[in-house]
Write a structure and sequence with these properties.
106 residues; alpha+beta; three-stranded antiparallel β-sheet; 52% helix; elongated
Length: 106
């Protein structure tokens, strides 16, 4: 199984970093005072609440985008039918104009 995240300790400040191997981005950092005796981050409810609020804000925006995309997709068939009907009428009008103007030279 491929490792997706690694834990690294900064040699200067001893901050614990969790790094995503694929994107090379720091996913979490924990200063030494926020680590327990095993070196794992101490779970703090205030950090959880802050993260939850950030996610809630994204969810509301994401829901609006999703709803708009869903409505657009639901009306897509009707929009394509309308476009086809307009093109068909335009083609029929061109055909009627060519027949009615007596386009033969005589």
């Amino acid at each position: 199984m491929e490792v997706k995240q690694i834990e690294v300790t900064c040699p200067c400040c001893e901050t614990r970093l969790e790094v995503d191997v694929r994107s090379a981005k720091v996913m979490r950092h924990s200063p030494p005072q926020q680590l327990d005796e095993t070196g794992k981050p101490i779970l703090d409810e205030s950090r959880w609440d802050v993260a939850k609020e950030r996610i809630a804000g994204r969810h509301e925006v994401g829901t609006d985008i999703f709803d708009d995309a869903l409505r657009k997709e639901q009306s897509r068939g009707r929009d394509l039918d309308d476009l086809f009907d307009r093109a068909k009428r335009k083609l029929e009008d061109r055909g009627n104009d060519d027949d009615g103007d007596g386009g033969e030279d005589g």
